[in-house]
Amino acid sequence: MAKIEDPTERDAAVEQIAIRLSVPAERGRRFADLTSLRVGGSIDWVLSPNNEAQAAALVHDLEQHAIAWRPLGSGSNVLADDGEHHYVIVSLKGLKADPVFDGNRVSVSAGYSLPRLCIDAARQDLSGIEGLNGIPGTVGGALWMNAGAYGQEIGTVVETVRVARGGRVIEIPGSEVQWNYRHTSFREGEMLLGATLSLHPDDPQKISERMEKAKSQRMATQPHGSRSAGCFFKNAPAGSVGTGKMIDDLGMKGTRRGGAVVSPKHANFIVTEGDEAKAEDALALAEEIRARVKREHGIDLEYEVELWSSK
Ligand code: EPU
Description:
Blueprint: H1 7-21, E1 25-30, H2 31-34, E2 42-47, H3 52-64, E3 69-72, E4 78-80, E5 85-91, E6 100-102, E7 105-109, H4 114-123, E8 126-127, H5 139-145, E9 148-149, E10 152-153, E11 158-165, E12 168-173, E13 179-180, E14 183-184, E15 192-198, E16 200-201, H6 204-221, H7 243-249, E17 256-257, E18 260-262, E19 270-272, H8 279-297, E20 306-308
Parallel strand pairs: 2-5, 3-5, 4-20
Antiparallel strand pairs: 1-2, 6-7, 7-15, 8-16, 9-10, 11-12, 11-15, 13-14, 17-18, 18-19
Helix pairs in contact: 1-3
Bound molecules: uridine-diphosphate-2(N-acetylglucosaminyl) butyric acid (EPU).
């Protein structure tokens, strides 16, 4: 079907789809409310399906009407620009049914909190994701980017992933997905609905020690309680100096552009401050960092944060 060009017609179509599928719909939200950096402009629609089947039906209907959409979890790895974003956000937040444990496996929906899942798994004496404890985000976001920390990556424990295809929930083997460093082979437009993880039993004492260690290291070395999107740039390939250290060594901690600051705690974090902070402040600062690193080290830093454009 041809794309609906007229905004009024498109809005009417979105509204009808939401009503037909009983999906909660909101208008007039801002990325400043939807992302952890607390900056970014308006978004036309936020649709929040309540379960995986509903989410699959929803994205199918949107696609049938050629209505552009994007999935969003807790917005902890996204920098959306300050413009007007004319598309639909499909929020993962409603997909948060309690995880179901079965032996060493756990089935979990995409909107469930990753830190909560780490704690739940530890309570079942299951190991494999304790290093991810404290990564602020949803399971869906973690799957999308193959989140990792302290020697663990979520992709290594994924048995199957549930995705939306043709209006249905389809399960694909984790082995069919490429799980690279902070990147996967999921393509734009793929709606991740949930996953089954395969963990392994371990001594509860050891699991909880590793969880505590990951958490305390994170608390000691990364900003918390501030508005950030985690590490802004990827690290260069193994063996080279980490990006945080590189930016730190350039003396850029504390560098400010408008309401955006290079975190004094970890130089690969950009934090925003104050009500006036803008996405363009964070972007300007990020580009300044890239230019310095390019000039001094000849390295092109790659964004780890997703940049969402309204254009
Ligand atoms: N360092 C500095 N100054 C800084 C930051 C770091 O000197 O401002 C030094 C540290 O002292 C340490 C070394 O650099 O000797 C490495 O630092 P860290 O342990 O913090 O690791 P990282 O490579 O900077 C990566 C991930 C983090 C993840 C940690 C722990 C990336 C881009 N970053 O950071 O992930 O939490 O390891 O596993 O891969 C994220 O994905 O958003 C993220 C924050």
